[in-house]
Amino acid sequence: MVLEKHVACDWESVHYWAAKHRLDLARRYQHQYERLDREFPNLRASRAWVESQAGEEAAHLLIGYVEALAAYLRQRGLDAELLHWCEDALQACSTVGQNPDQLLLLRSEAQIALGRWDEAVASIQAAVEASEGKNPRSYAQAVLVLGRLQLNRDNYKDALETLGKAEALCAEQSDYEGMATVRSEVAAYHLNRRELDEALSLYLEVDQLRRQAGATEASDNTLLMLGVIHRKKGDYGQAIAYLKQLLERGEMQRNRGATARAVHHLAWVYLNQGGLTQARRFSGRAITLYEEIGDTRGASDTYEQLGLIALAEGRTGEAYSYLEWSLAMRRQLGNRVGAASSLRRLAIVRFRTGHPVGAMRDLWESLTIYRRLGVLSCQQLVAILWELTAWMIGPQQWTV
Amino acid sequence: MSEDLNRKRRQDLEDNTRKTLDLIKEYEDKRRLSDDPKEQRDAERQVADLRQLLEQYQRERDELDRAAESTAMLWPSTIPDERYYPLPGRERDLGQLLETLQNARGSPVVIIGGLGGLGKTAMAVELARRAVREKSFDGVVGDSAKQEILAGGEIVRVREATLDFDSLMDAIARQLGRWEVPTMKAEEKHAVMTHLLRQRRYLLLVDNLETAENADALVSQLHGFLDGSRAIITSRKEVRHDFACSLLLEGLTLEDSLFFLRMDAEQRGVQQILETPGEKLTEIHEVTGGAPLALKLVVAQARFLDLDPVLKQLRQAGGNLYSFIFRQSWKQLSLVSQRMLIYIGRTVVTTVSWDELAGVGIAEDEASLIEAIDQLVAYSLLDASFVAGGARYGVHPLTRQFVNSDLPRIWQEQGLL
Q: Does B79 fall in a domain?
C-alpha cells in the first residue's frame, strides 16, 4: 500500500516529466531528423499535453517546442502542424511577456507554405512592428519575408523596393544567408519575366555567396532554379541533371517538399520533350506529395501541369477539368500570375475544342492580368503567342 | 550462396522444422501416456533436445530471411512486419494456404479472419513472405485499411479517407512506381491496373479489411482484377465469397497452446512450467482460451508465483482475464518497474529510447533502471526492440489499457487517487 501510494503520486506528474525531458531531447537532436522521426509521436503527444496546461512554465515549454522543432516540421512538410504550434506559442509569449517577433516570422513562413497569404501578410506586419528598433536581425528577416511575399503575390514594384531594403539590412548584420536569399528572390523575379540570362547569373552569384559563407554544396533552391532556367533555355540534359540531383537529395533526406518540387519540374522537362508517359508519372508523384504535405500552391501548379499533359495526349475534357481546377485554386490563393497562366492554357483548350470566342476571352483576361502586374515583357508576350501558335500547328512546345 | 541453393536450404529447413514438430508431439504424447518415470524422463530429454534443434532451424531461417530481404523486395510500407511463431497447427494452416496460393486453379483470394490479437496480420505476412521466397510471386503490394498507420520511421499518419477500391488501386500503382495511374480517370485506371496485375504475378495484401468502406464489394472488385495474381486479406469481420478460401483464426488449439507454453517457458527458463504435468498446462489453455498473449503472461507469472493460486484466481476472472493477470503481475513489480510502466503506458505513443528512460528520473541510477527493464520484460509487460541508434521500449495495447483504465480505478477504490 505504501508503495502504491508512491506510484500513484507519479500518476499526474509523468506527463510533466515527459514534456520537460522531451524538450531537452528535441533540442539535443534538432538537426538529426531521422532521430526526430522516431521521437516525434512522443514529442507531439507531450506538446499537446502542455497545450492543455496553464501557467508560465507551460508557456515557456510551448515556446521551446516550436523553437526546437520548427526547422524539422518545415523540412518534413508539416506546415499545418507548425502553424498550430505557433498559434499556441504566440499566446504563451503574451503570458510570459516575451517578444514574439521570431514566432510571428515562423508563423508567416508556415502560412506562406500553406498558401494562406492574407494571414501571412498580417503575421509579417506584426513581426516588423515587434522587431523594429528592438531586434535588428529579426527586423531584417521580417523585411525579407515581406519582400518575398510581395513577389509571390505579384506585387513586383513594392517587392523589389522591399527586397533592396532587406539586402541592406542583412549586409549591416553581415547576414550572408539573408543576402543570398534576397538575390534568389530577385532572380525569381527575372525568371518570371523570362529574362533567363539575368536570372541564371543571379542564381550562380547566390551559390557563390553561400559557398563563401561556408556552404559545401548548392542549396535545394539553387538546384531547383538552375534546373528550371536550363529547361526554359531548352537545355534539357542540364535541367534533368540539376533536378535529379535535387530529387536524390530530397529522397535521401526524406524531404517531401523538395522531392515534390523536383518531380514536378522534371515532369515539365519531359512534357517539353514530348515524353508524356514520364511526364504524367512525375506529375502524379508530385500531386501525391503536395497533397500529403498540404501545399496548395504546389498542388495548383501540378493540376495545371496535368491539364497540359492531358491536352498533349489529346484528352481535352480531362485537360479542361484540371485547368479549371487549377484556376479555381489559384484564385482562392490570390496567385494572380498563376491564374493568368491557367487562363491562357484554358484558352488553348477552348481553341482546340472549337470555342474561339471563349478562348479569346480567356486569353485577353490572362494578358490583362500580366500587364497589370507589370510582367508582360516583350519576351513574355512572344513566348505566349509562340505557345499558342505551336498548339495550333501541333503539340511541340507546351510550356513557357 | 546462390539463389537456388538458398531456396533449397530454406526448403530443407522448413521440412526439418515440420518433422521436428511431429517428433516433439510424438515424444510429448509418449511422456503423457507413460506410467514409467524413466520413460517419462527420456521423453522429456528428447523433447528438450528437439526444441534446441528447432531453435537452431529458426535461427538459420532468420539468417536466410535477412539475407533475402537485403536484396530489395517489393513490400507495402503500410503493412506492419509482425513476428510469427511457428506452431504445429498454425504451420499446417499456413502450408494449406500456401498451396492454395500456389495452385493455378486454387482460390484466388485467401481471407484470414478472427478477433484482434490472434495473429492474423502475422500469419498473412508470413504467408506472403513464404510465397515470395518460393518464387511463386514477383512481389507483394497492398495497403492497410487502418485509420492510423506507422510510416516513415515512426510518424503516426492518420489516413484522410477510409480504404476503398479506388484508393487501393492508387496505393498499389504508387508501390509499382506507376505514379501516373492515380491521375487517370476511373475507367482508364482500371484498364491500366488490370494490365499491370496481369503482366506479372503479384500478391496483394489487404490488412484490416473490416475498416474499409463496403468491404464485400471491395473483395469482389479485387477478384475481377487478379488473373495470375493472388490476394491475401485479413479481417475481423466475416467476409464470405465463393471464390475465396477463408481461415477463421481462433485461440490456439490445445496442441499449439501446449507447444507455445513449453517453447516460451524454455526461452525464459521458467522451470515451473517445464515441470508442470500436461493436465495443468491444459488447464492454462482452457482458462486463457488459447490466446497467445494471455499464455505468455501466465508463463511470465509462473516465473515468480506458484502456478496453483494463479490458476485458481484466473478461473474466477471470468471476462476480465487480462485485467486480472495484469493486476496480479503489477503487485509483484518493484517501485521503479511500476513507475516505468506508468511512464510508458501514460506518455509513450509508440516506443521510447533508453536515453529518455534514463534521463527522466524514473530510477536513481542506471543499475536500478536495468533491473526494472529486466523485470518488466520477464513479466512480458515490456517489449524491447533494436533500431539504428539503440534500444527502444514499448508496451502492448492491452498493457497500456491496464495502466490507463484499470490502475486509476483500483487506486480510486483504495482512495489513493
A: no
